[in-house]
Design brief:
Layout: H1 3-16, H2 23-32, E1 34-38, E2 43-49, H3 50-57, H4 64-73, E3 79-82, E4 87-93, H5 96-99, H6 101-107, E5 113-115, E6 120-124, E7 139-142, H7 153-172
Antiparallel strand pairs: 1-6, 2-4, 2-5, 3-4, 3-7
Helix pairs in contact: 3-7
Length: about 180
């Protein structure tokens, strides 16, 4: 097996370990390219509106360039892009929603939310790593480099702060947000 395939297989197994019954999720990945996984046990997710991500990355929509900037800014931590919903999801440690409670309340004004227990996230198959303009299907903007490797909460917080700053600056200059 190829080392990249080994990493993808390990990441798939790790992601699916959030479920008791994995067969249905495997089938959904195979048939639809996406499955719903519960958050709050192995990992949680920070939902970032596309406009905030694009304010930081300088992009105009999902693209390899935006993905590369996210990869750099978040230190290679995994990020899912939902082009149809105009959102990105940075995968973070499971404890993040609890430790970020106050900050998240402040960030909701720009559409950021921290998703944990009692929430499910549509997670694409680990080999879906490029944006497809024909389907607008969810994909890994920054793929999982290995199982259990997540975004550092501080890096995500810095991304959010930079995005808020850019959006505020645009609004103050009379631009659109």
């Amino acid at each position: 097996m190829h080392p990249a395939a080994d990493l993808q297989l390990a990441a798939s197994h790790w992601l699916l370990s959030t479920l008791r019954h994995r067969d249905r999720a495997r089938m959904e990945w195979q048939e639809h390219g996406i499955t719903m996984l519960p958050l709050g046990t192995l990992f949680s997710a920070v939902r970032l509106p596309q406009r905030l991500v694009l304010a930081v990355t300088g992009g105009t929509g999902p693209s390899a360039e935006v993905d590369a900037v996210l990869d750099e800014v978040l230190g290679g931590g995994p990020v899912i892009c939902d082009p149809h919903g105009h959102r990105y999801y940075a995968l973070v440690p499971a404890s993040t929603p609890t430790t970020w409670r106050q900050a998240v309340d402040d960030w909701r004004v720009v559409g950021v939310d921290c998703l944990g227990r009692d929430t499910y996230l549509g997670v694409p198959r680990v080999d879906l790593t490029t944006f497809d303009r024909r389907t607008y299907a969810s994909y890994w903007a920054v793929p999982m480099s290995s199982m259990a490797t997540l975004c550092a909460p501080l890096a995500v917080a810095r991304l959010i702060a930079a995005g808020q700053h850019q959006l505020t600056e645009r609004a103050d200059q009379g631009g659109s947000t």
